[in-house]
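Continuing the batch. This is chain 6 of the set; chains 1 through 5 are on the previous pages. Same settings as before, nothing changed between runs. Recording input and output for traceability.
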Amino acid sequence: MISLPDAPGTYALLLELHSEAQIRVGRFGSHVFPAGRYVYVGSAMGSRGLAARLARHIREEKRRFWHIDYLIGAMKIVGICVDTSGLRQECLWAQRLATTADCRMIVRGFGASDCSCATHLFLVGSKGYVAWRQLGLRLPGFAIADTDSSN
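Output for chain 6:
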């Protein structure tokens, strides 16, 4: 069982997609998502904090509400980083990833409907993976292959 923090804060999901897929994402329509690793950044500032939001993301059966809900069925969550300071840092984290050499936006506006960021979802290469690892505290309980963490 994974222990999830109750505090409000920011999180970054590391997702894997094993083969290219065309996925419909609500009002954004269908997009082709290349195989690879993705990082999605979000925040959970409500009274039930990160524990409730992350448990929802991990749960397979749910009503699609957020953009990320459309991807989680096709992609596997393989890691989670969190910051439990209670500060909303998702835009800062998205900006860090956006300026990392091998992080690519796939869908403009994904996860960023309440801010001015270009996206909160990135297809990441090895440098993007290292950047994800440095965003916050990694939660144990996920099988993360660290084969490219030296880059």
